[in-house]
Input
Amino acid sequence: MKPRRRILPLLLGLWVALQTVAQTTNGVSPSPHPTRHCLWEVQGSNTVYLLGSLHVMKPDLYPLAPALEAAYAQAGIVGFETDLETLKDPAMTMKLMQAGMYSGTDTLKNHLPAATHALIVSHLESAVGSAAPFEKFKPWMVAVTMLEMELMQLGYHPEQGLDLYFSRRARHDYKPVIALETPELQIQLLAGLGELDGTQFLQQTLLELKTLKTDFDTLTGAWRTGDLAALERLLHESFAPYPRLRDRFLTDRNRAWIPELEKLLRGTTNALVVVGAGHLVGTNSVVDLLKARGYRVQQR
Output
């Protein structure tokens, strides 16, 4: 029996551009005041805090730990993977839909193995009554739509994610906000998936929907207690079978962000940068790459 691959929770960082979470893990209640967090302090000419985000959460994860709030309070600039305000533009929604749908008479059925298509139809008919509206969606769009629907049923909402929480705070407090990449680039990360990768993503989504709550409980427990070994293990399990996807969604983007982070580290204003937690653990993570460039990076 093959081990279950948890790729979905770690790809959710992308869904914040398209739009992890219970209070217990493995039946054990976490400490109400964990001493470690998915938060790092990087020293340059100033201080840059790196906060690993869960992009969808339940309200009961708030209020946040004091260390996270303190990092925000000490930051004069707040950064995110992308510009969350731009995502509200209807034109961006149109770009997403155009990228995620077939044109003309082409349909999903023409691009999936018959057995996979039958499973998708069965799942959608059970979940929403009809699969017909999804037939114009490309595999990756079907995958993220099914994922979002399931998460909403489980009580997980993007509106409760750390990204939006701190974005709203920063704009309310008139703190400058920066983005590491454009919304168009994030859309292209999914839209540019080849046929094979897109189909595998959809097939894996269908398998993991059955255990999504358990996966998110595990992921959130590791995030909440700053358990880097557990987070890295989840990351390894997720991407080991998919090296191309790991490079596309994580490694290549981590490397692209380093020059922008170094600009902040050479500045005169402290900053808080909020990115998906998967970007901050393991080999070739943002933390790993900054350490290799000689910066002192300390988990808080």
User: Anything to note?
Assistant: Strands lie at 39-43, 47-53, 77-80, 177-179, 271-276, 296-299.
